[in-house]
Specification:
The protein is of the alpha+beta class. The mean pLDDT is 97. 25% of the residues lie in helices and 26% in strands. The strands form 7 sheets. The chain has a 7-stranded mixed sheet, with helices on both faces. Strands 8, 9, 10, 15, 16 and 17 form a 6-stranded mixed sheet that branches. A 5-stranded mixed sheet has the order 1-26-20-21-22. The longest helix is centred in the last third of the chain and has 23 residues.
Length: 736
């Protein structure tokens, strides 16, 4: 099915199942411990050997020699894989660095060996006996130092890296009110619960890989490229994933080394990347330096806006596109968005939840708060005055498909009691605590991707959906089941969903906030084909037949779905392919974040008291799971504002904060109260579901609302994230 015209009325609009807050259909399996995660597949590989990764202890240079004799002689050791005996391996286009290093070392903790043994403990012990002699080389580990050498970044997933409209320099110079500030964000880690883990087994020349991966088809493609074998010889299985946030969009060293070792030693091998290895062995969100310049008139209308950003990556890598949202969020006739990329020898930078916008909104929305103060305007009012209903770079010929930012701002402000905020920082107190309120807009582009599914109805009226879509904790199982139930007129309990297997039709996968909308649209397309096939088999005119309450109905005729399917059942496969609507219309999700903080006047300790938000993201397929996604994003945004940082040891080129004891993330006690409100909205230009994604909207702007609340409480403006006590304490107002 090609989606190239706005969606009309369709069965999803009935919303008898879709749009309701159903519990997750996979929930009982997860809470009972029966959901099979990659490393736990004892049922399929009961005799699997264990692999332990040996990581490089330099960030750049070469391996002179590897002495593995003591390790090979250790109890239980089956063998050791290195670049010397792994066989020919290629580097796929998805990877900036080799998954197995040697003799060249490209970054710290790059895998250089895999020790395989009968038990995990034996493999781990023997890994410590591997002796490696390195020839270190001088590396580049400091973004600020390399900023002067950065070049214009290449075009990427978010489009061109630089956009210029009008005469920014001239307009900025003439603007009555201007802002020119620099903001920085650190390297960040995904810190998902489940580590990267895989089990590999070969049957002749055919590989089966049970792995934790967000994108099944990409995993097949990259495994085939790296090993140099046909894609048809690879099966990837990933039905349950314990979080990813972008870190599992591509295969990592666990998958490759498990496959190489299983082939070499003739038995299944399981490999997990240990928690302290993840930060340096896998990908991360790169640090940024962002310069914001905004010129406005005395009424706060923006005429000139520039967002220049610098980030770093290994040679051949890409930028953190922190200026992406600034292209579309606010008005401004004169605009400049530019991304610059420096070469660094730190581990590979890549996608992390809302790549670009998550950290770009931290800077932009703090800058808007500063501009509002200069103008003497309420921050909500400033944003309302700069709303624009079309792509500001391309003009009215490219309107937004739907844009309810102003409604989100007003409703969010009302629900949060924003009117109680004092515009003068440091004037509200609760005992020893300074109280502040802050806000920020929320914005995330609406991305879509082709997605397919196979849907069947059996002779008992049961429905089966098969697609290689993944569920990374987001609720994919449930919204896919809701879609099929709505389209075929059956209760939710009559639908079985099977995900995460490369034997199934290729879906959008999970990432970029496109998964829910695209995958359900693919299921919708397959159900349209199935409805036609069932109607024809039962002797109905497909255009007249409806599917309601377990029956196929047309006119005065009504047949049970099971009878219409027949004893052999009926199956159909189709998918959604998106046309040019995303080019003709700007498509995005919007919202407004609000936050109240308390800051200890003596110690500078920050406590979030409450967070709130109003959001517009098309049809909300399941309000319960959508709320889960948004509050998770709000929480991650708070973490980015207050605590998350991969601290770089600039002497040796590695991330020091590499486990959950040192890399701090928010816990329940940090986030006591959260309120989420979804506006009623249908976007008929997004998909037949008239939905959009919400998985990343919640993180975009959340941290800026926290930062702005801290300023409102204390009068201290911190532009270097995260906002930790050491940065606040020296600038706190005197105790009274």
């Amino acid at each position: 099915m090609k989606f190239d015209t706005p969606a009309g009325i369709n069965p999803i609009d009935r919303q008898t199942v879709v749009g309701h807050p159903h519990d997750r259909i996979d929930g009982p399996r997860k809470v009972s411990g029966t959901a099979p995660y990659a490393y736990e597949r004892h049922d399929v590989a009961p005799d699997a050997a264990y692999g332990w990764i040996v990581g490089a202890t330099i960030a750049k240079g070469r391996i002179r020699s590897i002495d593995s004799r003591d390790a090979e002689a250790a109890p239980g050791v089956i063998g050791i894989i290195t670049a010397a005996n792994a066989g020919p391996l290629k580097t796929s286009s998805s990877h900036t660095a080799d998954l197995l290093g040697g003799p060249e070392i490209q970054h710290y903790d790059q895998a250089v060996a895999l020790v395989v043994a009968e038990s995990l403990e034996q493999a781990r012990h023997a890994a410590g006996l591997v002796r490696i002699d390195y020839a270190p080389a001088k590396g580049r580990f400091d973004l600020a130092e390399e900023r002067a050498h950065a070049r214009g970044a290449p075009a990427g997933f978010s489009g061109p890296s630089a956009v210029t409209v009008g005469d920014f320099d001239g307009a900025f110079a003439k603007a009555p009110v201007t802002l020119d500030e620099v903001y920085t964000t650190p390297d960040q880690n995904h810190a998902m619960m489940e580590p990267h883990a895989s089990i590999a087994a070969w049957d002749g020349d055919r590989l089966t890989l049970w792995t934790s991966n967000q994108m099944i088809a990409w995993a097949v493609r990259d495994t085939a490229t790296t090993l140099g074998i046909p894609k048809d010889n690879i099966r990837v299985i990933s039905p349950f994933i314990g979080g990813g946030f972008g870190s599992k969009l591509w295969i990592r060293a666990d998958a490759l080394l498990a496959a190489v070792a299983a082939r070499k030693f003739g038995r299944a091998v399981k490999v997990a990347i240990a928690r302290p290895q993840i930060a340096n062995n896998t990908t991360h969100r790169p640090a940024t330096i962002q310069r914001l310049r905004i010129g406005a008139d005395e009424q706060g209308r923006i005429d000139a806006i520039s967002h220049e950003t610098w980030s770093g990556d290994l040679p051949g890598g890409g930028p953190e596109t922190a200026g992406a949202q600034t292209r579309l969020l606010y008005r401004g006739e004169h605009r400049r968005i530019a991304h610059f990329l420096a070469e660094l020898d730190l581990p590979e930078g890549n996608a992390m939840r809302a790549p670009g916008e998550a950290v770009g909104m931290l800077a932009l929305e703090v800058a808007m708060d500063e501009l509002a103060e200069k103008l003497g305007l309420d921050p909500v009012e400033l944003r309302i005055r700069n709303d624009v209903q079309y792509d500001p770079a391309k003009g009215p010929n490219r309107p937004f498909s739907s844009r309810k930012l102003v409604e989100c701002l007003r409703i969010g402000a009302e629900r949060f009691h924003w009117s109680r905020r004092s515009p003068t920082p440091g004037t509200l107190r609760d005992g020893r605590w300074l109280i502040g309120l802050g806000m920020a807009s929320a914005f995330r582009n609406n991305l879509v991707a082709p997605s397919a599914a196979r849907v069947s109805v059996d002779g008992k009226g049961g429905v089966l959906v098969e697609t290689d879509m993944t569920d990374i904790g987001t609720g994919s199982y449930t919204i896919i089941a809701q879609t099929a139930a709505e389209m075929l007129g059956v209760p939710l309990g009559r639908v079985e969903v099977r995900l995460g297997d490369s034997l199934y039709p290729v879906s959008s996968g999970s990432g970029g906030q496109f998964g829910a909308n695209s995958a359900t649209a693919g299921v919708y397309a397959a159900c349209v084909a199935l409805r036609a096939a069932i109607a024809q088999k039962a002797g109905f005119n497909a255009g007249d037949a409806d599917f309601v309450d377990g029956h196929v109905v047309a006119g005065n005729r009504k047949v049970k779905l099971a009878d219409a399917a027949g004893a052999d059942g009926v199956s159909a496969e189709d998918g959604i392919v998106f046309g040019d609507l995303t080019k003709r219309y700007a498509q995005a999700t919007f919202g407004a974040h609000f936050c109240e903080v308390a800051v200890d006047a003596a110690t500078g300790e920050v406590r979030i008291r409450r967070q709130g938000g109003a959001f517009a993201a098309g049809r909300i397929l399941n309000p319960k799971s959508a709320r889960n996604q948004v509050i998770g994003g709000m929480t991650m945004g708070a973490g980015a504002a207050l605590m998350e940082e991969l601290v770089v040891d600039r002497r040796f080129g590695y991330f020091v904060t590499r486990d959950l004891a040192d890399y701090h993330v928010p816990v329940h006690a940090d986030i006591p109260d959260q309120d989420v409100f979804f506006l009623d909205e249908l976007d008929d230009k997004s998909s037949p579901m008239k939905a959009k994604g919400v998985g990343e909207l919640g993180i975009c702007g959340s941290g800026a609302a926290v930062a702005n609340a801290i300023y409102n409480a204390t009068g201290v403006r911190i532009r270097e994230f995260p906002i930790t006590v050491d940065k606040l304490i020296e600038r706190m107002p005197p105790l009274t």
